[in-house]
Design goal:
It contains 14 helices and 21 strands. It has about 450 residues and is of the alpha/beta class. A hairpin with a 5-residue loop joins strand 17 and strand 18.
Length: about 450
């Protein structure tokens, strides 16, 4: 075993990449690697990339350029590119940046120790396959870093083939982890002090994990997880409207451990654009789904994703999106200008004018910001259950999350990190709340 080596990981993009980075570090820990926040002292640097955002590959090559002086100063330094850009770019990365020692896709990072050993003899290691072996079965014990919250991937890949998205090509087909494997990892995390778990998947609500005799949906999995002693909170992301079945909706009403927050992307309010995006649902179907979810859990806070300026979008199409946003009332949301991804069907279509797309994005974001501000203000004067996660910026202050995934700051003893407390909200800012400690409690 190697001894005393330093690992620096830079993570791009989504929560699944955060989970993957944690698992990479865990896979390398038996080889003697411990993490550092200083790239200049690292023996191994990994860039865990995401292909969702605009110009993702260019950003990776730019970062590699910034790392060149470190490689020049320390020829023994190993540099690797992981994740979706690695999957998409493959050998082109090492062709453009010869200093890169290894390239590993998101389905192969359990092989990192073997790949790293290969680089010790001066060879490059590239693995962007979709291996038949179960990477999760190959990975070791979880490390929670002393945090009361943790991510747990239960599903990977996507079969939806939205016209704008590269995920089916970089993450592969939809695959769900076996029930026993998920439950064992959840119990391990809880035994290590985790009180809140967020289940992850490209389409997490498409979960169809097998047990000895049946296939479980996400609703059944949530109910089983809720019975784990010490696990107080469960969240899941990201969901597709077409996989939001009745049993999953009912779990929001039946399980107090399932938090009243749901990220449910719709992307557009125009049926014409939704069809062009290959979303396979209409705006009316989405609104009916929202009504059913709110009937089951009236206090739920909704979040969504929106793309503006998709090829062919007219002002009428955009007006339909604004109308849908008005009808739903989001507490949080993410919105972006469309940008083409090579290899996707939409990339072959002519783009609309950049200034038109920018104007629409500004108008949409103004509406979403107003809705989020209203949701924040509505919390003032209320008591909410907060799971404290870490110290705040001010002396004596702790920061945690409400049931609705809002950041909450309050004066509280340091030993309350990891505990759930009732907090009365006294002030609201655009992205956080301030409150006064009422009492330690179970979630309200």
């Amino acid at each position: 075993m190697a001894d005393g080596k330093k690992l620096f990981i830079k993570t791009y993009g989504c929560q699944m990449n955060v989970y993957d980075s944690e698992r990479m570090a865990e896979a390398l820990a038996p080889e003697g690697y411990s993490q550092t926040q200083d790239a200049s002292e690292a023996d191994l640097i990994l860039l865990n990339t995401c292909h969702i955002r605009e110009k993702a590959a260019e950003k990776v090559y730019s970062e590699l350029g910034r790392l060149k002086p470190l490689k020049a100063a320390n020829p023994d330094l190993k540099i690797g590119v992981a994740g979706c850009v690695a999957q998409a770019e493959g050998e082109e990365i090492t062709a453009r940046q010869p200093m890169v020692d290894l390239v590993v896709g998101p389905q192969s990072y359990h092989r990192l120790p073997e790949m790293l050993a290969r680089t010790q003899s001066g060879r490059r290691a590239i693995d962007t396959e979709f291996p038949e072996e179960d990477k999760f079965a190959r990975l070791g014990a979880r490390s929670t870093r002393g945090m009361p919250t943790a991510f747990l991937t239960v599903q990977e890949g996507c079969d939806k083939f939205c016209a704008f998205c590269v995920v089916p090509y970089t993450r592969g087909a939809e695959v769900s982890r076996p029930v026993a494997q998920v439950m064992a990892e959840a119990r391990e995390l809880t035994a290590r002090g985790v009180r809140e778990i967020t289940l992850l998947g490209q389409n997490v609500n498409a979960y169809h994990g097998a047990d000895e005799s049946a296939t479980w949906g996400l609703g059944r999995l949530l109910r089983a997880l809720a019975r784990i002693e010490g696990l107080e909170r469960i969240r899941y992301t990201t969901s597709h409207p077409n996989d939001m079945d009745d049993d999953l909706i009912a779990a929001h009403a039946d399980c107090a451990e399932v938090m009243p927050y749901l990220h449910l992307p719709v992307q557009s309010g125009s049926d014409r654009i939704l069809k062009a995006m290959n979303r396979k649902h209409t705006a009316a179907q989405y609104l009916d789904l929202i009504a059913r979810i709110r009937s089951a859990r009236p206090d739920i806070l909704l979040s969504g994703d929106f793309i503006v300026g998709f090829p062919g979008e007219t002002e009428r199409d955009f007006a339909d999106t604004l109308a849908l946003v008005e009808a739903v009332g989001y507490g949080q949301a993410y919105s972006f200008k469309y940008s083409p991804r090579p290899g996707t069907p939409a990339a072959e279509k002519p783009e609309i004018a950049a200034d038109v797309a920018s104007d629409r994005l500004q108008r949409l974001q103004a509406l979403l910001a107003d809705q989020q501000a209203a949701a924040q203000r509505a919390m003032v004067g209320r008591e909410t259950a907060v799971l404290f996660e870490k110290p705040g910026r001010e002396p004596g202050q702790l920061v945690g999350k409400s049931e609705y995934l809002q950041a909450v700051h309050a004066l509280a003893p340091a030993d309350m990190i990891g505990q759930i407390a009732r907090v009365r909200i006294t002030a609201a800012a655009p992205h956080s709340l301030a409150g006064e400690l009422v009492a330690v409690s179970e979630p309200v």
